[in-house]
């Protein structure tokens, strides 16, 4: 539980930091700065959504320890950024951001009470619903595109493809570097795992030559970054689990892209669920109880 000396903004910044599983206020602040340098409107969406999600948890009297650690902010923050990324910032879109951010808190609490490792699935589910509604039932115009200039040399490909930026819908190289620094401030181990995961996914995706454009934009590595971070640790087995999750997420992401589906962070969530099931059910129970 947060104490009286905890700054009032602490749970909100931690909520943004939890986007990459870092309950660190400095990480959250750097994430906001990284979004701001690329898109002030997306930064506003992230801030508004995080505040709404966290305040909803407080109004519903959810556990203060969970609130203080930012667990009710990150799904909301992603919803806020995503809707501004996919649609023009109309009044309807801002109303949707507020309502869906509040719903992320309810879904998160439901899963926390049942010890379900839900990660970013509330964001995914609610954003999919919003995309369907705003593309079909209540059409909302898409934002004016500002395409990222892609450079063909290998060094630029690797930098743009590292994927930290695209975790929060930022195609900017500067934003991606700030996000990496933000994770490193909280956990150098997690940041380096994330880089390793991104590089592995890039090298794998390059073998699919028709995917080079996606690689350059970070589309084939941001889920790998999250997979690597969630399993980051100092044991050899952590690297094995991270690698397995990255491979699974790549297969899922490729299938979704080929079918024209909105990927979001679903490959990360699905792959992590698969690896956790393998680790906790298969390995721990039947293969090597003392190893997992």
Briefly summarize what is shown.
Helix content is 68%, strand content 0%. The chain has 292 residues and is mainly alpha-helical.
Please give the structural blueprint.
Layout: H1 10-17, H2 25-38, H3 40-59, H4 64-68, H5 74-86, H6 91-113, H7 121-137, H8 154-161, H9 173-186, H10 188-206, H11 212-216, H12 222-230, H13 236-258, H14 266-287
Helix pairs in contact: 1-2, 1-3, 2-3, 2-9, 3-5, 3-6, 5-6, 5-7, 6-7, 9-10, 10-12, 10-13, 12-13, 12-14, 13-14
Outline the structure in words.
- The chain is mainly alpha-helical and 292 residues long.
- The protein folds into two domains: 10-137, Ammonium transporter fold; 154-287, Ammonium transporter fold.
- 68% of the residues lie in helices and 0% in strands.
- It has 14 helices and no strands.
- Helix 3 (40-59) packs across helix 6 (91-113), helix 5 (74-86) packs antiparallel against helix 6 (91-113) and helix 10 (188-206) crosses helix 12 (222-230).
- The longest helix has 23 residues, at 91-113.
- The chain is globular, with a radius of gyration of 18 Å.
Keywords:
mainly alpha; 292 residues; 2 domains; Ammonium transporter fold; 14 helices; 0% strand
Largest sheet: none
Total of DSSP H or I helical runs spanning 4+ residues: 14
The unreliable regions are 147-158
Radius of gyration: 18 Å
Q: Indicate the overall shape.
A: globular
- What fraction strand? under 5%
CATH superfamily of the largest domain: Ammonium transporter AmtB like domains
CATH architecture of the largest domain: Orthogonal Bundle
Q: What's the level 1 CATH class of the largest domain?
A: Mainly Alpha
CATH fold-level assignment of the largest domain: Ammonium transporter fold
């Amino acid at each position: 539980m947060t104490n009286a000396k905890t700054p009032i903004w602490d749970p909100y910044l931690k909520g943004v930091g939890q986007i990459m599983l870092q309950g660190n206020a400095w990480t959250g602040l750097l994430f906001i700065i990284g979004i701001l340098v690329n898109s002030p409107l997306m930064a506003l969406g992230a801030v508004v959504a995080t505040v709404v999600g966290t305040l909803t948890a407080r109004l519903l009297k959810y556990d203060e320890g969970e609130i203080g650690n930012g667990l009710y902010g990150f799904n909301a923050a992603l919803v806020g950024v995503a809707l501004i990324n996919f649609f023009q910032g109309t009044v309807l879109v801002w109303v949707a951001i507020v309502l869906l951010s509040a719903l992320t808190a309810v879904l998160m609490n439901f899963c926390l009470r049942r010890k379900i490792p839900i990660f970013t699935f509330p964001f995914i589910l609610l954003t999919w619903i919003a995309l369907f509604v705003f593309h079909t039932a209540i059409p909302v115009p898409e934002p004016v595109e500002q395409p990222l200039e892609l450079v063909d040399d290998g060094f630029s490909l690797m930098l743009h493809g590292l994927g930290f930026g695209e975790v929060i819908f930022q195609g900017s190289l500067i934003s991606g570097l700030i996000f990496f620094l933000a994770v490193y401030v909280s956990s150098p181990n997690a940041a380096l795992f994330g880089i390793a995961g991104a590089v592995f996914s890039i090298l794998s995706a390059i073998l699919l030559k028709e995917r080079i454009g996606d690689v350059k934009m970070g589309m084939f590595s941001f889920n790998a970054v999250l997979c690597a971070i969630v399993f980051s640790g100092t044991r050899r087995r952590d690297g094995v689990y991270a690698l397995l999750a990255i491979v699974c997420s790549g297969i899922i992401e490729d299938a979704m892209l080929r079918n024209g589906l909105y990927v979001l962070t679903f490959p990360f969530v699905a792959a992590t669920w698969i690896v956790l099931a393998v680790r906790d059910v298969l390995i721990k129970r039947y293969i090597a109880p003392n190893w997992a």
